[in-house]
Amino acid sequence: QVQLVESGGGLVQVGGSLRLSCAASGVIFSINAMGWYRQAPRQQRELVATISTGGTTNYADSVKGRFTASRDNAKSTVYLQMNGLKPEETAVYYCALGRYTVHLRNGGVDYWGKGTLVTVSS
Hints:
Layout: E1 3-7, E2 10-13, E3 18-25, E4 33-39, E5 46-51, E6 57-59, E7 67-72, E8 77-82, E9 91-98, H1 101-105, E10 111-112, E11 116-121
């Protein structure tokens, strides 16, 4: 059974930083692309970042230069380092697994985590 478990969310002040983690189990992590999405209250879920099996990253324009996705295949874990957080980035952050990043960008997510809440206070 595939499981994705996010951690690292919490309360942070404007301009602060958080590092999210997502540990995968029940799947061959290294051959799958990973993504981070977020869903703010009363908003649609949006793609934040993707990372390919080879470590190539892609970001939403709104987070470029502030967020960094990375992965550790030995630990079956993907990370999202978030710097310069803004109040409008308060959301539940989800990690997602798909065969390729193109699938993640086009709704082809195979598995979702349950999410971790990030609250940015002003």
